[in-house]
Amino acid sequence: MNEAKAVEVRSVSKSFGTYQALRSVSFDIGANEFFTMLGPSGCGKTTLLRMLAGFETPDSGSIRLHGREVLDLPPHRRRVNTVFQNYALFPHMTLEQNVAFGLENLGWDRARIRARVGEMLERVHMETMARRRPGQLSGGQRQRVALARALAPDPEVLLLDEPLSALDLKLRQAMRDELRKLQRDSGITFVFVTHDQEEALDMSDRIAVLGAGEVQQIGSPTEIYEEPANRFVADFVGETNFFDVEVLETVAGQATVRTPFGLVITAPETGVAGRRRATLSVRPEKVNLGDQAQGVTMQGQVVNKNYMGGYTHYTLDIGGIELRASRRNASREGDAIAAGETVNVGFAPLSARVLAS
Amino acid sequence: MTRRHDVKHYPGLGPLVALFFVYLYAPLAIVVIYSFNANRIVGVWTGFSLEWYASALNNRALMNALKTSLTVAGVATVVATTIALLAALAIIRGRNVRFRKLSETVVNLPLLLPEIVLAVASLIFFSLIGLQNGMMKLIIAHSAFCTPFAFLPIRARLQGMSLDFEEASADLYASRWTTFRRVTLPLIFPGVFSGAMLAFLISMDDFITSNLLSTGGTTTLPVYIFSLIRSGTSPELNAIGTLLIVASLILATVALAVAARGARNND
Predict the structure, then answer these.
(1) Please, what is the Cα angle at A83 between A82 and A88, to 5 degrees?
(2) Helix, strand, or coil here: B48?
C-alpha cells in the first residue's frame, strides 16, 4: 500500500428514519489499492459506496478524496466513477456512445474521445460490438462495457457495487481475474462492495468487514481469515466452530482457556483480556483426523459425512460436543474414514483463536 | 390449463366477437361508404362520387373551423405537455417533495370533474377577468383540461424508469441539465409523445367547453359539425367524418411506432 491516501472516511454516521445504517465509521484507502467492503446485506456497505459517489450524504463526519473534502460536491463534480450492480448502461445509446458519455461531459475533444473509446472497448474485448446497443448483449458483455465506461475517464477512484452478483458462476470466476488485472494495469484505486467472502478474499489487497453499521475489522485477506478480530468476523468470513470457553489467563496476546472438552489450551486471542468468558474459534480445515491429528488431540466419533469431491466434511461428536472438520481428498483413497468410526481428532492451538463473545 | 378452460373454446365465442366488431365499426363503415355516394340521401346509393369531398374542402367555414381546432389543439398540446412533464419530474423525481400524493391528485383532478362544470367555471372565470380574445380563451381552457391526459403517460414512464440511469449519468460528470437532455428525456420520450398525442386528440375532440366558449370567429371543428347537423344532415358530413378517421389512423400508427421503438430501446 502506498503512503498516499485515495479515500479518507472520518466518523461517518447515517440514519434512515430510526434505522442507523452507519455508526461513526472511519477508515483510509490507499492509492492504487484494491479495497473491499465486505458484509451481509444491511451492513451499510452500499450506503458507504453511494456516499463516496455522492448519491448519499452522511448525517455527520467527513469524506476526502485525494485529500480534498468532497461532501459539498455533487456526484458529477467528483473524479469518481461507478460500476453499478445492474450496470445501468444507457439503453438508447450504442456501446461507443455509452463509453464516450463521460468523456464528452469532461469536454474532451472528438479525436481524443474516439481514440480513448476504441482503446477501452479493446481492453475489455468488446471492440467488435461498438455499434451495438446494450439490449443486444449478454450479462458478461454488459459487465465489460460498464467497466470500460467507468474506467474511460481515468477516475481517481473506481467504485464497484456487487458487479459480479448478476453473473453465473463460471463467468464470475473469470471476471474476478479480469478485474484484478484491470486494476493492476490501470493503477486506479478500486473500492469493491460485496457480500461474497470468496470474492473479497480472492481479489482484495485489504478488506473492511462491515457489520451492524460498524467496521468490524480491516486487514489483508489472510489477517481477516486467520486472525479475525471478533466473533462476527470469524462467523461471516469462512466456516468455523465456536465453543464457549472459560478464560484462565491472558498473557501477551495468548489466552489460556478451559474448553468444553475438558482440555486446557493456550491460543492467540483478540480483545479477551480481563474477561472471564470467551469464544474459541476453530476453522474446520484446521482440524485434522486420524493419523494426521496433532496438537490438541481427542477422540471423536464421526456422526455425519458429506463427500464434496475435492474434500469431505465430517461432523464429529466429542463427548457430546459437535465439531466440524473438513479434509482435502489428496488421493483417491483419501476419504477412508467411515461414518460411525471413532478417530483421533486434533488441531494446533496456534491455528485456533480466542475471541470476545 | 386444460383446453376446456381456455377462453378460445367457449361456445359461441366467434359469433359474439363478430357481433361486437359489427356493432363497433358498422356505423363507421356506413359513414365512409356513403361519403362516396353521388346521391344526397344516405341509404340510397346511386353511384361513386368525390363530390362531397370537393364540397367539404371548398367550404370556407369548415376550413376555418379546422384551422381554429388545429391551432388550439397545437398550442394546448405544447402547453399541457410542458406543464405535465415539469409536474411529473417534480412529483416523481423531486427530493423532499411534501404533499406528493396531493399534488398528483390536483394535477389529475380535471379527469374526475364533469366537463360541464369545468366549462362553466372557465366561462365565468374569463368573464370575471374580462378576457375577450376567443382564441385565447379556447387555448387556456384546453391547456387546462388536457394537462392530466398528458401527465398520466409521462408519469407512468418516469415511474417505470430506474433511477440508476440518472445516477450513472451524474456519475459520468453530466450536470443535471445534461442528464435531463441526454438520458431522462430520451428514455421517457415515448411517454411524452403519447401524452402529447392524447392531449392533442382530447383537444381536437372537445365539444362541451369549446361550444360554451366559442364566439363568432373562433368555432372549432366539433362545434361547426354540430351546427351542420342542426340544419339537417348533409353528405358533406360523411366526407368530413371519413377525413377525420383517416387522420386519426395516421396519428395512431405514428404513436404506436414511437412506442414500439421506445420499448425496444429500453430492453
Answers:
(1) 105
(2) strand
Residues 78-107 of A with CB under 8 A from B: 80-82, 84, 86, 88-92, 101-102, 105-106
* Cell numbers found for residue A59: 448525517
- Of the candidates A315, A318, A339, A192, the one whose C-alpha atom is nearest the C-alpha of residue A261 is A318
Give the A window 127-186 contacts with B, CB below 8 Å.
133, 135, 149-150, 153
Domains in chain B: ranges and CATH: 51-266 (1.10.3720.10)
Which residues are CB-neighbours of A204 under 8 A, at least 6 positions away?
A: A34, A35, A36, A192, A220, A221
Residues of B with Cβ-Cβ distance to A88 under 8 angstroms: 162, 164-165, 167-168
A contacts of B173 (beta carbons < 8 Å)? 76-77, 102, 105-106, 153
pLDDT value of position A1: 42
- State the complex-level ipTM: 0.84
Nearest to A81 among B171, B186, B265 (CB): B171
CB of A183 closer than 8 Å to CB of A175: no
Read off the pLDDT of residues A262-317 as tens digits, 9 standing for 90 and up: 888 899 998 888 888 999 999 999 998 887 878 888 889 999 999 888 888 999 99
* Amino acid found at A247: V
**Banded pLDDT at B147 (limits 50, 70, 90):** very high
Tens-digit pLDDT profile for residues A170-185: 888 888 998 999 899 8
Q: With contacts defined as CB-CB under 8 Å, which chain A residues touch B95?
A: none
Q: What's the gap between Cα A62 and its chain centre? A: 24
pLDDT tens readout for residues A38-50: 999 888 899 999 9
CA nearest A150: which of A86, A199, A80? A80
Q: Taking the model in full, what pTM does it have?
A: 0.82
A25: left (phi over 0), alpha (psi -120 to 50) or beta: beta
Compute the distance between CA of residue A133 and CA of residue A130 in angstroms, rounded to an integer.
Answer: 8
* Residue A199 in this model has a pLDDT that exceeds 70: yes
